[in-house]
Amino acid sequence: MKQVRIKDIAEKAGVSIGTVDRVLHNRGEVAAETREKVLTIAREMHYQPNIVAQALTSKKQYHLAALLPRGGQDNVYWMAHPQGIEKAVNELRPFFVDVHFFFFELHNEADFIAKTREIIEYNPEGVIFAPILKKESIQFCADLDTKNIPYIFIDTFIEDSNCLSFIGEDAYQGGRVAASLIDYGLDADKDILIVNIAKDLENTQHLNRRNQGFMSYFLDAGKNRGMKITVEIPSAERADVEVRMDSILNTNKNIGAILVSSAKTHVIARYLEHKKLKDTILVGYELTRKNTDYLKKGIINFLIGQKPMEQSGKAVKRMFEFLTTRQIPSKKEFQPVEIINVENVDLF
Amino acid sequence: MKQVRIKDIAEKAGVSIGTVDRVLHNRGEVAAETREKVLTIAREMHYQPNIVAQALTSKKQYHLAALLPRGGQDNVYWMAHPQGIEKAVNELRPFFVDVHFFFFELHNEADFIAKTREIIEYNPEGVIFAPILKKESIQFCADLDTKNIPYIFIDTFIEDSNCLSFIGEDAYQGGRVAASLIDYGLDADKDILIVNIAKDLENTQHLNRRNQGFMSYFLDAGKNRGMKITVEIPSAERADVEVRMDSILNTNKNIGAILVSSAKTHVIARYLEHKKLKDTILVGYELTRKNTDYLKKGIINFLIGQKPMEQSGKAVKRMFEFLTTRQIPSKKEFQPVEIINVENVDLF
DNA sequence: CTGAAAGCGCTTACAG
DNA sequence: CTGAAAGCGCTTACAG
Predict the structure, then answer these.
(1) Which residues, listed in sequence order, are joined to residue A305 by a DSSP beta bridge?
(2) What is d(CA A154, CA A146) in angstroms, rounded to the nearest whole number?
(3) Statement: residue A228 has pLDDT above 80
(4) Is residue A201 a part of any domain in this protein?
(5) A69 has which bridge partners?
(6) Residue A189 domain boundaries
């Protein structure tokens, strides 16, 4: 199948390549009739632009913006996202894509809003962002919509938005994986405690999906072990956690394993370490530094991880494909969950 | 930092761009003195060719050859490799890379040799292959060396070859991961049996590395659980396996977990299923269809997997980078091992 | 041994 | 409203 060039279209339509180009790029100044003719022929011939030639000639730079929580040594998860983006940009090197990062402080609404303003001002061709703060994110989506800037969500999904795509964790499967690991390692006569630490109810969709997955595993397995004992701890403060955990462990003497449904697993790890409860199985989510530290100490047994680098890398590639060829990606793309223990954590 | 063009080099050297091009591509017909001058300037200016322009102008196709065992429904691992290669080629789409696949029947030396001959005749610019059959592969390397065709190993490594790179599993870490999973799930008073099924001693390097990793875990943990009971089963025939396993389980009544150091895990799974030994923990390697079937049945608890798609995808990218920019990749690149159980197997 | 010209497929002014 | 020309950075003949 030979490549179709604008020259081929031009010849068939009896016009010049300049006209074809104007039609293809909606640059106007073309008679309606000519326009129709060119479009029809382009479609018939399955014209696909040669993006190599485009890149060479246009020197068009694609400026993307990425709005993410600030990572750090204590938050490897959000550290990894920019890395994944950089890597993807690098693979697109010959095509002049650049990404400008806008980092906001987690849980800081004012900062988030400030950064969204900066992005609107920066006026990028596309935006990749983590809509963690719901209300503010919806406003941002509206702003982007009116400016006709396409955006892709990573990590968190918001319903009823015009996002081009969402790329994130399969939280439900993550819950099932956590359940299976506990089930495998825990004596049959022991109980499981589920701890939900959701300070400001952020990411509660994730937590819910995970817990649903967790339950479904035991339902499917016909085991009555699932959600019998659950505790909500609204604060991750050491003292608060201790009070709540002390009381629950006092009234439930048979608990052999704990699942923490959020990234705050390290808080419970610290508690278990302090109380010298080393035989208790502890499973949680996300490869934050605090979590992996406790994993290496042997206090956390497993972490269920996503692949942040691949996630955001995909976002960049999808955005690039959309911008260059108007290829619409699938609306939701779930990343596989990974089982991490002390032996394979360093490979990530 | 502005892009340096051959025109810039030409101007500085006081020659034409044609001459610069001849120097850069070693196409001869250049005075030694001119050559030196141009090379010096190119180096000084950190010249990097614009691969977009190269691709557009040269229409040079890179023909790669991939020599792999034939995959199939019963061998998902080798099925995945071509897929990974296709995917990588696709990402390189605008650059005219194509890969011609040569599949050989596993363990069939004559077929392997026949396919290497075909490849030599095909005369590709680069070869990606799995040197599973050692003697024959060494011969093939020699052939490629004399024809000056670069090659990258995947899956298996051969010492003292001129391969551009090796991309494969971290077998030692794989062994440690297997050990940690068994240690986590097995009662402290139970024993572990290690089964080495190595019919024709293929891949024995892998098996050895895995077993070393396995042992090291228990050594590090200060546990005396490691390699106490080991059995070698030279044949994967059902009857042979049964005889050997019967005898070993009869003399060792306390075995609670079995590790199979190779992809033949399903053979032991069949045995356990047949004998209705469902409480025995079974851990093995590789996501072959037969293995994943037993994983889904709950007879195999964990499989330690590699990422075949990423592995061979990387091989393609490294080869492409080498061919276009002479970038030499690192000699060995190990892929992370993955923990697969019934809950996350379908995500792969 | 070296240079000047044509061309890859596309975009960007410019002339009419 | 439309066409012809120049140019992106490189490679490929061809002329000398």
Answers:
(1) A338
(2) 21
(3) no
(4) yes
(5) A104
(6) 171-305
Of A29-43, B63-77, B190-204, B285-299, the range with the lowest mean pLDDT is B190-204
Residue A228's identity, in one-letter code, is K
Report, as an integer, the average pLDDT of A231-259. 91
Cα–Cα dist A27/A24, whole Å: 8
Tell if B18 CB is < 7 Å from nucleic strand C: yes
Q: Which of A95, A177, A344 sits opposite B337 (nearest CB)?
A: A344
Identify which of A236, A169, A230, A241 has the alpha carbon closest to the alpha carbon of residue A205.
A169
Annotate A145-158 with b (16+ C-beta within 10 A) or e (fewer): eeeebbbbbbbbbe
Tell me, yes or no, whether A189 and A300 share the same domain: yes
Q: Does B338 touch chain A (CB under 8 A)?
A: yes
In the stretch 246-305 of chain A, residues with CB closer than 8 A to chain B read 301
Are B214 and B317 in the same domain? no
Q: How many domains does chain A have?
A: 3
Residues B147, B83 share a domain: yes
In the structure encoding, which two tokens stand for residue A122, read together?
A: 């920066």
Contact A180 B342 (CB under 8 A): yes
Amino acid residing at B283: V
- Kindly list the residues from chain B whose CB atom is less than 8 angstroms away from the CB atom of residue A179: 343
Residues in chain A with CB shorter than 8 Å from the CB of B91 are 91
Q: Is residue B348 part of a domain?
A: no
SS3 breakdown of chain B: % helix, strand, coil, rounded to 5?
A: 50, 20, 35
What's the rounded Cα separation, in Å, for the pair A143 and A146? 5
DSSP character at residue B235: -
Strand C–CB B26 distance below 7 A: no
Average pLDDT, chain A: 88
pLDDT tens track for B18-72: 888 888 888 767 788 888 888 888 888 888 888 888 888 877 778 899 999 998 7
pLDDT score at B2: 67
Cβ-count burial A220-246 (b if 16+ within 10 Å, e if not): eeeeebbeebebebeebeeeebeebbe
Q: What is the pLDDT of residues A327-348, one digit of tens each?
A: 788 899 888 889 999 988 876 6
* Both tokens assigned to B255: 């075995």
- Give the whole-angstrom CA distance, residue B299 versus residue B337: 21
Q: Which of A113-117, A138-142, B20-24, B161-165 has the lowest mean pLDDT?
A: B20-24
Give the Cβ contact number of residue A101 at 10 Å. Answer: 16
d(CA A92, CA A71): 24
Contact B124, B146 (CB under 8 A): no
B52, A52: Cβ pair inside 8 Å? Answer: yes
What average pLDDT score do residues B286-308 get?
A: 90
Contact residues, chain A, for B339 at CB < 8 Å? 338-341, 344
User: CA-to-CA distance for B19 and B267, rounded, in angstroms?
Assistant: 64
